[in-house]
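Hey, resending since the last one bounced:
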Amino acid sequence: MEREQPGKDWTRPVWVHLEAIEAKHSQVVEAARAAEVADYRSAVATVARVGMTQFLATLRQPDLTNFPDDVVAAMFPDRGEAFQRISARREQARLQMVEDLTLTRATTVYVTVRDAMTAYLAKHEQRVELKTGDWIDRETYKQMRKTLLAVFGLSSSEKMQPVRDDVPLDLDAKLASLDDETLEGFARFWHRMPAGVNSPRTVRNRLQAARDFFKWCDRKPYGFSLDPDTAKLLTAEDVETPAQPYDADQIKRILAKGKTRGGTRLRMYVLCGLLCGYTQVDCAEIAEADYLDENGVRYVHRYRSKEARPKRGSRPIKIKHWIPPELAALFDQHRATNAQRFLFNNENGVALTAKNVASIYAEAVADAGEDLSFKQLRKIGFNEIKKLSGSIEVADQWDGHAAGVRDNYDDGFFPPVIAAQQALADKLRADGVL
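The structure tokens again:
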């Protein structure tokens, strides 16, 4: 069937090249069949290298399929905005065609991580050329490019030279060969803030750039799939900031502000974070049914907030934490009733929320002139539990991670956790914190 030719000269090169490529494809395929070529991909690769190169060179001309601006102004002086919208859609379609054909070309020779990264950067650089729609300015593109190259250990120069040799990901590996274990190791490498990187913000930005790139690859015909759990490791929220050392005097200075900021509620929240690893959500959502009295000894037996949505293939497990007498007395002092059946109300008599906890703690820390987030407070507790128990497994269990100790774990009761909590409580008493 003969293709209808467009009537304008500026679009004709596209069709001319397309017909040339179709003819080239037929010639190569016939030659491959006649010679009984065992590796059919070599024939397809020939098409990609020869025909596609010419066709893509034509397609990469900006505004190839649009009317020139001076023609629009002369012929349609009252419809400039409408033509701008049409031109933007056509230009977007042209860029999409360039991208799709580039991907097809790359896929025929088995795309590597480096190939995919080059295509990804080319796509975003093309957005700089757009006049409307999905455009970005050049400075934004340059910063995005610099951040992405940095996460793979490359410089932002034109040649993208390696500047790190410790990033655990081979850029010349086939993208389809990357498995969850490799990507997890890559993420954990950056979580640990390797040498030369001193800012958690830098790590977060780099991981976010990597996540955006791998999610884009997942949508392309590369044979690559990004597992949701693995993608989560690349989110900014998953970056681990090194824990501050335990400083009893610092904590006591914060607790002293309870006289004006939250009263004894402040002490209750701080102790929940230090002794149980509770987040602000955990502090607010302890249910009446979670708080147990077993022969005069108090426990909280509940799902941690982080375990309410377990990773794929695992199940949430209730964690049983021992509550020392001093903390139990604070629980009894602030215990209340509400429609949600949570253990505590806020100062206005309605169910306590994480926002209430965060507000009281943040104000006390600011008044004390300290720099200790609630997350850091919990990390301090984690490190103390690990040191006192001599076991990372015990600390992980205390923090709500069931992995690695499931066989010794009976519905949330893991005795070494209780013993480590009791040792930590003794230390806090001796330091005047508890």
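Confidence is low (pLDDT under 50) at residues 1-17, 35-50, 308-314, 403-408.

Sorry for the duplicate.
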